[in-house]
C-alpha cells in the first residue's frame, strides 16, 4: 500500500511536476467555475428556487462572517467562502472512486493556512495600519509579545495539521477497512468521513474568520476559540 | 515526511485563483442581485411611503372637500328652505288675499243680491199692502173715504205755520193754480170744502184744479208751487216702509 503522505506526480509542465492534489484542485476549480458561471447567468429580482438556494448560501456566509467580524462582510466573503467551499469539495472528492482529497496532503493544508496567515496580516494592516497591527502583538501586556508572535505561527501550523490529520486519517482508515473487509463495509465509515469533512471545512473557515477578526480588531483571540477541535 | 514546495505553491495559487473565480462568477453576481433586490425593496417601500403619504394627503383633501360639500349642502338646503318658506309665505299671502278678495266679492255680491231681494220684497210688500188697502177700501164707499181725507186735509191746512201760509198766499196772489189729486173723484161738496180750507189757509181766493190718481190708493195730495201736502195711503205706506228699514238692516248685519 502506498504511503498516504506520498505525492503522485501525474505529469510535468516544464520543470514543474503536477501532482494529484494539484490536478484534483484544478478539477474542483473547473467545476466551480462552470457551476458558478452557469448558475449566475440568469439571475433575476424574482428568484427561481435554485437562485434562492444560491442566495441563501451567500446570505448564510455573510451572516457567519458578520457574527465573527462586526463589519461589512464583502471584503472577506471571497476568501472565507472559497476556503469553506474548497475544503468541503476537496474533502468530499473522496466519494469519487480513485480520487484522493487534496486536503489529505499537507501541502494543500499548509497552503490554506498560509493564505489565512497572510490574509490576517493584510486585513489587520489595512484596518489598523502597520503600527497598530504590530502594537496588537503587545496586548494584553508587552510581556506577551513573544508568545503572541509565536502563536501566530503555531495556530497556522495547528490549523494545517488539524485539517491534514482529520482528512488523511479518514482516507487511511477507509483504505485499510476496504482492503480488509468487503465492498460495502466501509460505507458507514465513508458517511462518517463526509460528516468529518464538512465539520473540518466549517472549523477551518470559522477559525480563519476568528483570526482575521482578531487582526482587524487588534484584540487577541480568546483561548477557548483558538483551540477548537472536533 | 517531505513537503513538496512546488505543490504547496501551486495549491496556494490555485486557492487564490479559485477565490477570484468564485468572487467573479458567484459571490459578486449573487450579492449584487441581493443588493439590487434590497434597493428595489427600499425603493418600493419609499414609493409606497410616498404613495401612502400622497393617499393620506388626498384623503385629507377629500375629507376637507367632503366637509365643504356638507357645509355647502347645508347652506344650500338652508337657502332652499328659506326660499321655500318665502315662496310658501308669498303663496299663502297671495291665497289669503285672493280668498279675502273672493270673500269681499262674495259679500258684495251677497249684499247686492240681498239689496235687490229686499227691494223686490219691499216692492212686493208695497204692492201687497196696496192690494190689501185697495181691497179694504173697496169695502168702503168712496165718498166716505174721501170725506175723511178732506177733513184730514183741512186739519192739515189749519195746522200750517204762518210762513207756509204766506208762501201759499204769495202763490195765490201770483195767480198760480194749486192741484188737488185724489185716489177717486171727489163730489162737488168735497171739492168746495177743499177750496174753502185752502182759501182760509192762504187768506184769499185760490185757483184749484182737481185730478185723480189711483196709485194714491186712498186720500188726497195737495201740490202747489211751493208746497206739497200728501195725505194719502201711498205716502203713509212709504213712510211705514221707511220706518221698517232700520230693523231690516240690523237683521242683515247679524
Description:
The complex is a heterodimer of chains A (230) and B (254). With 230 residues, chain A is mostly helical. Chain A has a domain of 150 residues. Chain A contains 7 helices and 2 strands; from the N terminus they run E-E-H-H-H-H-H-H-H. Chain A has a two-stranded antiparallel ribbon with strand order 1-2. In chain A, a hairpin with a 2-residue loop joins strand 1 and strand 2. The C terminus of chain A is likely disordered. Chain B is of the alpha+beta class. Chain B has a domain of 113 residues. Chain B contains 5 helices and 4 strands, in the order H-H-H-E-H-E-E-E-H. In chain B, strand 1, helix 4 and strand 2 form a beta-alpha-beta unit. In chain B, helix 1 runs antiparallel to helix 5 and helix 2 packs parallel to helix 4. Chain B is rod-shaped and about 205 Å long. The C terminus of chain B is likely disordered. Chains A and B meet through strand 2, helix 1, helix 2, helix 3 and helix 4 of A and helix 1 of B.
Descriptors for this entry?
heterodimer, A: 230 residues, mainly alpha, 7 helices, 2 strands, globular, B: 254 residues, alpha+beta, 4-stranded mixed β-sheet, 4 strands, 9% strand
Show the helix and strand layout:
The complex is a heterodimer of chains A (230) and B (254).
Chain A: E1 9-13, E2 16-19, H1 20-39, H2 49-68, H3 74-92, H4 106-135, H5 145-180, H6 187-217, H7 223-226
Antiparallel strand pairs in A: 1-2
Chain B: H1 5-139, H2 142-158, H3 162-173, E1 177-182, H4 188-202, E2 207-212, E3 219-223, E4 228-232, H5 233-253
Parallel strand pairs in B: 1-2
Antiparallel strand pairs in B: 1-3, 3-4
Helix pairs in contact in B: 1-5, 2-4
Mean pLDDT of chain B: 86
Structural class computed from helices and strand pairing of chain B: alpha+beta
Estimate the global geometry of chain B from the Cα principal axes. rod-shaped
Task: Give the fraction of residues assigned to helices of chain A.
Answer: 55-70%
Strand content of chain B: 5-15%
Amino acid at each position: 500500500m502506498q504511503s498516504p503522505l506520498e505525492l503522485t506526480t501525474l505529469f510535468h509542465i516544464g520543470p514543474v511536476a503536477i501532482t494529484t492534489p494539484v490536478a484534483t484542485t484544478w478539477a474542483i476549480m473547473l467545476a466551480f467555475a462552470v457551476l458558478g458561471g452557469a448558475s449566475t447567468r440568469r439571475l433575476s429580482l424574482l428568484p427561481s428556487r435554485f437562485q434562492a438556494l444560491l442566495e441563501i448560501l451567500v446570505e448564510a456566509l455573510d451572516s457567519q462572517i458578520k457574527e465573527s467580524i462586526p463589519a461589512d462582510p464583502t471584503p472577506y466573503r471571497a476568501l472565507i467562502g472559497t476556503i469553506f467551499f474548497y475544503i468541503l469539495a476537496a474533502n468530499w472528492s473522496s466519494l469519487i472512486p480513485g480520487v484522493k482529497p487534496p486536503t489529505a496532503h499537507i501541502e494543500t493544508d499548509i497552503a490554506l493556512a498560509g493564505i489565512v496567515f497572510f490574509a490576517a496580516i493584510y486585513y489587520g494592516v489595512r484596518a489598523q495600519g502597520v503600527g497598530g497591527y504590530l502594537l496588537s502583538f503587545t496586548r494584553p501586556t508587552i510581556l506577551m509579545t513573544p508568545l503572541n508572535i509565536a502563536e501566530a505561527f503555531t495556530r497556522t501550523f495547528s490549523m494545517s495539521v488539524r485539517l491534514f490529520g482529520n482528512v488523511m486519517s479518514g482516507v487511511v482508515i477507509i483504505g485499510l477497512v476496504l482492503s480488509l473487509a468487503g465492498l460495502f463495509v466501509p460505507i458507514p465509515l465513508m458517511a462518517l468521513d463526509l460528516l468529518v469533512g464538512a465539520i473540518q471545512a466549517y472549523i477551518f473557515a470559522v477559525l480563519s474568520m476568528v483570526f482575521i477578526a482578531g487582526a482587524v480588531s487588534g484584540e487577541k483571540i480568546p483561548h477557548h476559540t483558538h483551540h477548537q477541535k472536533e | 515526511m517531505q513537503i513538496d514546495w512546488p505543490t504547496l505553491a501551486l495549491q496556494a495559487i490555485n486557492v487564490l485563483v479559485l477565490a477570484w473565480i468564485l468572487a467573479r462568477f458567484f459571490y459578486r453576481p449573487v450579492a449584487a442581485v441581493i443588493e439590487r433586490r434590497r434597493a428595489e425593496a427600499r425603493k418600493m417601500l419609499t414609493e409606497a411611503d410616498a404613495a401612502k403619504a400622497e393617499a393620506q394627503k388626498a384623503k385629507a383633501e377629500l375629507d376637507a372637500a367632503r366637509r365643504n360639500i356638507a357645509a355647502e349642502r347645508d347652506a344650500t338646503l338652508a337657502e332652499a328652505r328659506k326660499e321655500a318658506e318665502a315662496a310658501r309665505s308669498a303663496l299663502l299671502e297671495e291665497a289669503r288675499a285672493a280668498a279675502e278678495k273672493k270673500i269681499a266679492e262674495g259679500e258684495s255680491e251677497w249684499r247686492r243680491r240681498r239689496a235687490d231681494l229686499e227691494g223686490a220684497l219691499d216692492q212686493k210688500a208695497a204692492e201687497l199692502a196696496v192690494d190689501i188697502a185697495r181691497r179694504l177700501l173697496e169695502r168702503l164707499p168712496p165718498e166716505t173715504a174721501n170725506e175723511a181725507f178732506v177733513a184730514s186735509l183741512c186739519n192739515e191746512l189749519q195746522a200750517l205755520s204762518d210762513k207756509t201760509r204766506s208762501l201759499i198766499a204769495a202763490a195765490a196772489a201770483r195767480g198760480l193754480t194749486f192741484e188737488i189729486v185724489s185716489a177717486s173723484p171727489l163730489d162737488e161738496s168735497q171739492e168746495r170744502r177743499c177750496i174753502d180750507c185752502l182759501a182760509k189757509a192762504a187768506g184769499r181766493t185760490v185757483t184749484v184744479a182737481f185730478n185723480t190718481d189711483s196709485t194714491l190708493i186712498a186720500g188726497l195730495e195737495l201740490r202747489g208751487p211751493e208746497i206739497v201736502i200728501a195725505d194719502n195711503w201711498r205716502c203713509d205706506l212709504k213712510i211705514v216702509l221707511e220706518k221698517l228699514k232700520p230693523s231690516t238692516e240690523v237683521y242683515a248685519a247679524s
